[in-house]
Amino acid sequence: MHTGDALLKECEALLYAEADCLDRADLDSWMALYTPDGTYWMPAAPDQEDPLNHISHFYDDRVMMEIRRRNFVHPRAPSKDHAVRCSHLIGNIQLAATDTNAGICTVRSNFHAMLFYRDEKRIYGGRYEHRLQHTEAGLRILHKRVDLIDCDAAHKSLVIYL
User: What is the CATH number of the domain that holds 33?
Assistant: First the structure.
């Protein structure tokens, strides 16, 4: 595992690759960025401590990610009736912690995402926390947490992952 600047650059490259997959709604390539036991969590309350004892917008493991992916690309899915266009901006990427023995690091960043779907523009913003793991295939996402600025507000159904 790299250390310092080299590790941060590798982490940045993975976060940018993930954003690109989501912008293009390429969920197959996006899922390939996750470890087989990877999870994706969006809390429904500020400072929520865990996804199991509290309500979340979602807490997806690999099986749920696959179900959402299949539903999104299914020929009769409502999402096929309208194009999904999205743009993610990621900034302030910081290495928060590293465990060189386990090959795991934690990266925090800020994001803005604009989604255009069904003639409606939606804007999301918040903070990401990615726990990344070095694998034989390279750096992969072990866990992603998305803390929306307005996580406790009412939201329409999310068409694509943020």
Answer: 3.10.450.50
pLDDT in tens, 50-86: 999 999 999 999 999 998 888 777 666 665 566 778 9
Residue 78 domain-assigned (yes or no): yes
In a domain, 36, yes or no: yes
This prediction has a pTM of 0.91
Secondary structure (DSSP) of 64-100: HHHHHHHHHH-TT-GGGGS--EEEEEEEEEEEEEEET
Helix then strand then coil, in percent of the chain rounded to 5, is 25, 45, 30
Domain count, the chain: 1
Contact call for residues 109 and 141 (beta carbons, < 8 A):
no
In a domain, 161, yes or no: no
C-alpha–C-alpha distance, residues 42 and 111, integer Å: 14
State both tokens at 135: 């694998």
Range of the domain at 96: 4-148
How far apart CA 144 and CA 125 sit, in angstroms, is: 15
Tokens of 16: 């940018």
